[in-house]
Amino acid sequence: MKLTAIISVIIIALTQSGCRRVEPGSVAAPQPTKGVPMSYEVEKSEQQWREDLTRDQYNVLREGGTEKPFTGKYYKFFEDGVYKCGACGEELFYSKDKFDSGCGWPAFAQPTQRENIEERIDKSHGMVRTEIRCAKCGSHLGHVFTDGPAPTGLRYCVNSAALEFNAMIGTEKKEEK
């Protein structure tokens, strides 16, 4: 009986480490989008998405998958630039807002613009979380939690496979010719 209780506590601790629950109505919790958009600025057939994305990108961006923690190409990557949606190129996060949260995925304190991120309630895996999606194409990015640094108190936990990085010089974008 004691062994079962100990194993249960360990399992609960392991499943909640790195990604804490967001309780509905908590003070700093982002407010999920009311309703889901009927259409996005960028729309493609599933066949087109499959052709345009790698297998890993498709799994994360279009099927809502999650890459294994501590494995993504941007997890320990800290260069100046902007992170864009891997599916449509929408600017999502600046490197100045990236921090090492220790959760196993790239973490950001805030998006480049609030309207570039769509939020939805996610009740999968026995938790209540706030899923984040690209507002331009509807692709899954990750989740947002309320355990981030000041001043926002938010941690946008994003899959590397959902992102593309563009370097910046100082605080100005590189000019594309």
Automatic annotation (TrEMBL):
BP-aspect Gene Ontology terms: protein repair; response to oxidative stress
Residues forming the catalytic site: 157
Catalysed reaction equations from the record: L-methionyl-[protein] + [thioredoxin]-disulfide + H2O = L-methionyl-(R)-S-oxide-[protein] + [thioredoxin]-dithiol
Gene Ontology CC terms, in alphabetical order: cytoplasm
Names of required cofactors: Zn(2+)
Pfam families: SelR (PF01641)
Record key words, sorted: Metal-binding, Oxidoreductase, Zinc
Positions contributing to Zn(2+) binding: 85, 88, 134, 137
Database matches in HAMAP family: MsrB
Family the UniProt entry places it in: Belongs to the MsrB Met sulfoxide reductase family.
Xref: NCBIfam families: peptide-methionine (R)-S-oxide reductase MsrB
Name of the protein in its database record: Peptide methionine sulfoxide reductase MsrB
Species for this entry: Anaerohalosphaera lusitana
